[in-house]
Specification:
- The structure is a single chain.
- By secondary structure, the chain is mainly alpha-helical.
- It has 3 helices and no strands.
- The protein has helices at residues 2-48, 56-72, 77-96.
- Helix 2 (56-72) packs antiparallel against helix 3.
- The termini are far apart.
Length: 97
C-alpha cells in the first residue's frame, strides 16, 4: 500500500502541470476565436472597398515576422510556418462561407 501512496504523491505535480497546460490550451482557443473574429471584420472592410481578400505579400510578411519572433523564443521557424499556414487557410475558409 505504501508504494501506491508514494505514486499518488508523485502524480500530484504532474497533475498540476497538466492543469496548467489545459488552461493554456483553453486560452489558445479563446485567442483563436478572437483572431478569427477580427479577421472576419478585416475581410468585411475589404469587401466593402472591393479590395482583394487574399494578399500573399501580407501573409508572407506576417509569417516572416512571426518566425523571427518565434525563433527568439526557442520555437522553430518550421513550426511557426506550419501553424500559421493552417490559420491563414482557416481564416480564408471562414470568410468565404
Amino acid at each position: 500500500m505504501i508504494p501506491y501512496i508514494l505514486e499518488l504523491d508523485n502524480m500530484d505535480p504532474l497533475h498540476q502541470l497538466r492543469r496548467e497546460i489545459d488552461k493554456i490550451d483553453l486560452q489558445i482557443l479563446k485567442d483563436l476565436k478572437r483572431r478569427f473574429s477580427i479577421t472576419k471584420r478585416v475581410q468585411e472592410w475589404k469587401r466593402k472597398r472591393k479590395i482583394s481578400p487574399y494578399q500573399k505579400s501580407r501573409e508572407d510578411a506576417i509569417l516572416k515576422r512571426l518566425q523571427k519572433n518565434g525563433h527568439k523564443m526557442g520555437i522553430s521557424k518550421r513550426m511557426v510556418k506550419q501553424i500559421y499556414k493552417i490559420l491563414f487557410q482557416e481564416s480564408r475558409g471562414k470568410i468565404s462561407k
